[in-house]
Amino acid sequence: MKNIWMILTAASVFVADQLSKLVVMQIMNLPLRGEIEILPPYINFRMAWNRGVNFGLFAGEGEATRWILIAVAVAISAWVALWIGRGRFGTAAQVSAGFLIGGAAGNVIDRITYGAVADFLNMSCCGFTNPYAFNIADIGVFAGAFGLILFANEKKPA
Q1: Catalytic residue among 138, 140, 145, 147
Q2: pLDDT digit string (tens) for 68-90?
Q3: What are phi and psi of 28, to 5 degrees?
Q4: In the structure, what pLDDT confidence band is assigned to residue 55 with cuts at 50, 70 and 90?
């Protein structure tokens, strides 16, 4: 199969993201508890509902913004899948695309299901208290975009 690494990575990131949210939200009941110290101050679970994009930008824009963000994520994911799928990209670019697509899909499911993205990972260090939370899908989107910047020019031989 031509793009097996992209497909496997996207599926893995999506499943890891959704399973982590299931555990944190349903089993650990983070929405009710608000915060759980895991390895303070380095990592804590802190419930945050992100209705916008990174760092909550555009969060107060309403229901239309939710559906616009869903459409943008789906469109970008489809474009990346087609771009990588039609080219002769190496494994690193395929994995990067999979990270981005899997992460975007995880956050799209949140927006559809909850009306916002469920963020819960909070990391601080060295006297700096980070007020923001993120999730595995966010890591996937960031790592995927960064990986595509680094590896998209590496082509497989014909």
Answers
A1: 138
A2: 999 999 999 999 999 999 988 99
A3: -85, -10
A4: very low
